[in-house]
Design a protein that fits this description.
Layout lengths: L1 H20 L12 H18 L1 H9 L2 E25 L5 E27 L2 H6 L6 E2 L6 E4 L1 H6 L9 E11 L9 E5 L4
Helix pairs in contact: 2-3
Length: 191
């Protein structure tokens, strides 16, 4: 009986996550157009800068900021997350688009939406996002997730290397935000 219940929970979890995993299913991108992703990414970064001056100061020194304006995460026992974003270069231009996605399992239930920005501070961080098979976040020791407490003590004079992540616009109900197990892949959305 327990085995049957576990299988049923797994099937229900997978069924609930299927639409989310489609967000991260391929290099062509399944989200909006390039112009829509670029517009949403710029607006999200500007909102982050308005509410977090430390993020703006970090952005002024970054080689690029990879912004995912809206990630959808959800599931029951088995979860999925995904969304599209753009790399904003120091001159404000956007030429590259990316998709983030991931699957998780364990005790979890709910749906949540949020965004995040990755501040790429050095050449190695910049090159990580263009690896042939995508970049699995959390696999490199130079990723720092900046929470409210850490942002207050962040000194941009000492930040020179690695990647810094800021979460923003959290909505919905689901336990925890994290980047471990997320994968970023370059996409080519329609114009």
């Amino acid at each position: 009986m327990k085995s049957l219940l576990r299988r049923l929970a797994l099937i229900l979890g997978l069924a609930a996550c299927l639409p989310l995993t489609q967000c991260a299913s391929g290099p062509s991108g399944t989200g909006g157009s390039a112009s829509q992703i670029a517009s949403d990414s710029r607006m999200a970064l500007n909102r982050l800068y308005r509410v977090n001056p430390k993020a703006r100061a970090l952005g002024n020194r970054a080689m690029g900021v990879l912004v995912f304006p809206e990630i959808t995460k959800g599931g029951f026992m088995v979860g999925g997350m995904g969304g599209d974003g753009a790399l904003i270069r120091p001159d404000g231009s956007i030429r590259d688009f990316y998709q983030t996605g991931g699957l998780s399992y364990g005790f979890q239930a709910g749906v949540q939406r949020y965004g995040y920005a990755l501040f790429l501070m050095d050449e190695e961080a910049f090159q990580n996002i263009n690896r042939a098979n995508g970049w699995e976040l959390g696999s490199a020791p130079s990723l720092v997730v900046v929470d409210q407490g850490r942002a207050a003590s962040l000194s941009t004079t000492t930040v020179q290397k690695g990647t810094y992540a800021f979460f923003f616009n959290q909505r919905g109900l689901m336990g925890g935000l994290g980047l471990q197990g997320s994968k970023i892949t370059r996409i080519h959305p329609r114009p």
